[in-house]
Fold:
Amino acid sequence: MRHRAILAGLLALVLAVVLGGPGCATGGSVQSGDDGGGGDATTTEAGDAGSCAAPKTMCGTSCTNLGNDPKNCGQCGAACGMFQVCTEGDGGAACAYSCSPPQTLCGGPSEAGAPDGSGDDAATDDGGGSSDAATSDAAASDAGDDGSAGDGGAIQPYCANLGNDNDNCGKCGNVCKPMHTCKNGQCGLDCSAGTTACIAGDICIPPGTCCDSAQCQITGEICPMPGGTCQCPGGERPCNVTNSCISVNDCCTQQDCTVAGSTCTTPGQACQCGNGQKACAATNSCIPQSDCCTPVDCGAPGSNNVQTYTCMAGTCGIGMCNPGCYNDDGQYANGCECCDDSLGKSCGAPTGLGQLAIGQTITKTGVLPAAGESDWLQVTFSNEGNKGFHGKIAFAANPNNEFAFDVDSSCNATPLPCGDGGSCTSKTTWEVFYGAQASGNPGDPNWQPIAPIGTVYIRVYRVSGSPTCDTYTLTVGE
Structure:
């Protein structure tokens, strides 16, 4: 009851102020320069309304809503009196002691309205949009006490339509984000003409862009981001014929077949050559299956002793053989069939035959495909003082006399002397023995033993001619 007594006293004071001088009564307004019931009003000229977003208007240097700004109620500079709010009614905006339905009091104190003659709280919830003390407190809590909760600079309290007020959407102080409009108390995207609302990205997107992958018309396409463009993943491309994403190597229409003679038999698959042929990108044509397109079709490097292959006019060939190997027969199928042997290739690294014994013979077979190539052998003669000694080096096989040998006493290119008075070079046979003419026995005064031969180096080489795979056979005995 004490509360009501205080309110009654306050009401009497308000009425005395209102009746005692110019100002706003219920539904009225206070113009600039009037006493305004104790509420000072500032004269403000209307500015460029186009610079403010609807429904706000430029008053001076600020955008404000003339429908609920008690400083500018209905027009710039029209200020409401003390305890009054600016409310939007059927007749437009006017100062009043309560909010007209469907408006709600926002940002007000616990008791903001003047008495309405009922003897109860001035701002009661009558179901028509006016607010009681609890609602006003909640609004003040939501909107803040500094008048900055979206009221365009209006002094508090102020009236707001929670159904369509962008600054108080659904509840006081709930400000909608840019490009969003309050409708039925909910903030939603408000897209300009020509754009579409994208809920997934909460943005407005232009024509030709996507919001999510569900909007993509081609099977397999994805929307990379809201506002992006539908595209095929992984380097694929769209095919309108199959309405799907296909490999870049496959065809969609005949225009995709760049190889002469090929056709797009099945869209979404590779172009096909007819009559059992295959596509060759190198020649940009269809060729027989047995023909090569590139050297890769001829074999892997290293196979059949081939280092590189060639493909000329659809026919495979051998470009280069592995070192020491030759395509002796000129055929591609067996590769470089003729290769150098594995015997020693220098005097410093000869193939050793060991030390010979009387009557012993050692045989070596080798292949020297190219002219000038050499095999080096090392052997030791040790029974020169024996009358049965018969040192001999000779070819058992020498096709077309293609091979010859030298006998050196060292790696300093010192050929042994030969019995014919010359040196042991370019020979096909070399031998030293006593023979029937030898007389006497070791120890006799007339005995003249063969001079010691010892270790010798035998160089076998191809004399001349084109490369062949002919083999030689050399015998070394004592």
Residues 21-189 form one domain.
